[in-house]
Design a protein that fits this description.
6 helices; SAM-dependent_MTases_sf; Methyltransf_25; Rossmann fold; methyltransferase; 2 domains; alpha/beta; seven-stranded mixed β-sheet
Length: 263
């Protein structure tokens, strides 16, 4: 499920600390993510993931409405998904049936689906939906649990924007446009970021907020090590641009050893 400054209703689940997408948010998600669903944006993502999957199966954590999973299935990769929100899956089901792309309702940090996968992936900043370090570690362990030996876990995540936050400033703007105003407030002690959205809806602005736990690339590498995964690659984008000090996001790949320690 794509999370680029996500717009959601704050409902809580007993099995996860992720905030849950409600019906209204799910129904408008595709319309609000037309740019991220465009062929120009998706092509390098699909190329990257299809190459890693090879002739194996892929599992998408937080598959949402199928922005990535459905076209990846169209590339010939057998895809399965895990998704917490039944409302998001209801939108996905209007596009593709359960037999073609099976989705299990559940928490990406703990839900287990049958079989082994060549690829598990989690895109569009969605690991930040898990609001504690423990939950994020469980997510890595769950990915490792599903991977066959030699399989890969891929995460797409923004680099925390703390370099844009000078002393005394509490918010960082990330979008100022005719239809949408967005800014983040950041708790640097708890590593929590709150995205605030003011979206034009007719003659009014709709306000939404969402909470996220940001994590540094090195912190994710340690989570991977705890889960028994080895770092393989880190890029600045899906096209494979080298990751650098000024990169605003990263695509990270970890590999399950062929002869690794028990998970």
């Amino acid at each position: 499920m794509g999370r680029q400054r996500s717009r959601r209703r704050a409902e809580w689940s007993a099995v996860t600390d992720s905030e849950l997408w409600g019906r209204a948010s799910a129904e408008r998600y595709d319309a609000e993510e037309t740019v991220m669903s465009s062929a120009a944006v998706l092509a390098p993502t699909l190329d990257f993931l299809a190459e890693l999957a090879g002739d194996g199966r892929a599992l998408e954590f937080a598959i949402g409405t199928g922005r990535v999973g459905i076209p990846l299935r169209g590339r010939g990769v057998p895809v399965a998904g895990i998704e917490l929100s039944e409302h998001m899956v209801a939108v996905l089901r209007r596009k593709i049936d359960q037999d073609t792309l099976p989705v299990t309702i559940g928490d990406m940090a703990t839900t287990v689906v049958p079989g082994e996968f060549a690829l598990v992936y989690l895109v569009y900043n969605t690991i930040s939906n898990l609001l504690t370090q423990d939950a994020q570690v469980r997510c890595f362990r769950n990915a490792a649990r599903h991977l066959r030996p030699g399989g890969r876990f891929v995460i797409e995540l923004e680099v925390p924007p703390l370099r844009l936050l000078p002393p005394g400033q509490v918010a960082v703007p990330f979008d100022v446009s005719a239809r949408h105003l967005g800014f983040d407030t950041i708790d640097v002690v708890e590593q929590l970021l709150v995205s605030h959205h003011f979206t034009r809806d007719g003659d009014h602005y709709r306000r939404d907020t969402s909470r996220h736990r940001y994590a540094w690339p090195a912190e994710l590498d340690l989570m991977a090590r705890i889960a028994g995964l080895e770092p393989e690659h880190r890029y600045a984008d899906w096209a494979g641009t080298p990751f650098a000090a000024d990169s605003t996001k990263h695509i990270s790949v970890w590999r399950k050893p062929v002869r690794g320690r028990p998970l």
